[in-house]
Design goal:
With about 375 residues, the protein is mainly beta. The protein has helices at about 75-80, 120-125, 260-275, 315-320, 340-345, and strands at about 10, 45-50, 55-60, 85-90, 100-110, 115-120, 130-135, 140-150, 155-160, 180-185, 195-210, 210-220, 230-235, 240-245, 255-260, 280, 285-290, 305-310, 325-330, 335, 355-360, 365-370, 370-375. The longest helix is centred in the C-terminal third of the chain and has 14 residues, at about 260-275.
Length: about 375
């Protein structure tokens, strides 16, 4: 269900990590943009061809390490045209006394190619019946969904345009804690082109977003509802991440997160080529986490992760798994949540045979599952 201003999902921090309530205010520092000359360490801009056949501007090397930011006007001028506003509509029935009604949502996106491919978040466009895009010059377009992937919270949409300004792709793997970070997006769904600055606060932060465990960049650049799907850029204006979450439940500010661009590139290519991610192994089931403490009804169900749907002909179906089975262990590891099951899946590839134990009608059943690609 969509909010009027698409809100970045809240995350669930790992229990071993406590969040400090102390607000850290980082000084905004001076950027010295050096000429691409001299000796070792100079950055070389290149054009590469992605697996989707689209030419991508790519900047290699560590851009921004040790730089300080004070004036980001050049970066904003370079990157601003690459970030778009996204608005969505979805027809919802729900339990409204008015029957069906239209909900509106808003987010951001980053131009990936001159001919109109745009990267955003899955949660920005999920369930949308119509998608509209506004570029920095005010031009509005209708967009079509190309592909989406809930596991990485990435999506690609397409507008019928040419001569757009695509973002220059950077290297998130070259980042260091303390590097400059510039976020550009559409906060509140009505302030498109907003620029906020900060630093990279942490690398490889393991965060659970809507039951999906992700490894994200952390930044203290201001992230607000509507920034989802927007760009996180380095001190040279290279795209290093796609903004997708912030911590808002505790009132603590300065805790924003972005999907690292290095890991996103393969997903984006697959979405453009196939409309979905086909290289990832799957059980081809829908899972549900049940907790008696969160249930409003008394039940004899045990806490744990349950199979609530089995795709006909999929890996689980061929192994004899059924709707209502509670998964006890997977690949020899005890599991209690769908996030734990998905984390184990990420360590495997299509064709692997993995053991699973389930509880059914009070009995423990052991099966062997040969993993397949995700079914449509």
């Amino acid at each position: 269900m969509m909010d009027q201003n698409q809100t970045p999902p809240q995350f669930e921090p790992r229990r071993s990590k406590a969040i400090s309530n102390k607000m850290i205010i980082f000084g905004i520092c001076l950027v010295v943009l050096c000429a691409l000359a001299g000796f070792g360490g100079a950055l070389i801009a290149t054009n590469i061809h992605s697996g989707s056949g689209i030419t991508v501007n790519k900047q290699s090397g560590n851009a921004g390490s040790g730089n300080q930011i004070e004036d980001v006007s050049d970066i904003a001028a370079k990157c601003g045209p690459s970030v778009v506003e996204i608005t969505t509509e979805a027809v919802t029935s729900g339990n409204s006394i008015f029957g069906q009604y239209v909900q509106q949502g808003a987010g951001s996106g980053v131009i990936f190619s001159e001919d109109g491919y745009i990267i955003t978040n899955n949660h920005v466009i999920e369930g949308a019946t119509s998608i509209a895009v506004r570029t920095q010059d005010g031009t509005e377009y209708k967009a079509q969904l190309v592909g989406t992937d809930a596991q990485t919270d990435l999506a690609v949409i397409k507008i019928d345009a040419s001569g757009l300004t695509p973002a220059t792709i950077g290297e998130s793997s070259s980042l260091q804690v303390g590097d400059a970070a510039i976020a550009i997006g559409n906060p509140l769904g009505e302030l498109g082109g907003t620029v906020t600055t900060g630093i990279i606060s942490a690398l490889d932060r393991e965060i659970t977003v809507e039951d999906e465990t992700m490894t994200l960049l952390q930044t203290d650049a201001a992230i607000n509802p509507g920034n989802s799907g927007g760009g996180l850029f380095d001190a040279n204006g290279n795209l290093i991440g796609i903004v997708n979450a912030k911590e808002s439940s505790t009132g603590v500010e300065g805790l924003g997160f972005a999907i690292p661009i290095d890991g996103a590139m393969d997903i984006i290519d697959e979405l453009i080529q196939n409309g979905s991610v086909t290289s990832r192994p799957a059980l081809n089931v829908s899972l549900y986490d049940y907790s008696s403490s969160n249930s409003i009804r008394r039940s004899d169900m045990e806490d744990g992760v349950y199979i609530v749907q089995v795709v006909q002909g999929g890996a689980a179906d061929k192994a004899g798994l059924q709707q209502g089975d509670r998964i006890i262990s997977f690949d020899g590891k005890e599991v209690n949540t769908s996030a734990e099951v998905k984390a184990i899946l990420r360590d495997h590839k299509i064709g692997d045979t993995v053991s699973m134990s389930v509880s059914r009608d009070g009995k423990t059943i052991d099966v062997q599952i040969t993993l397949q690609q995700q079914s449509s």
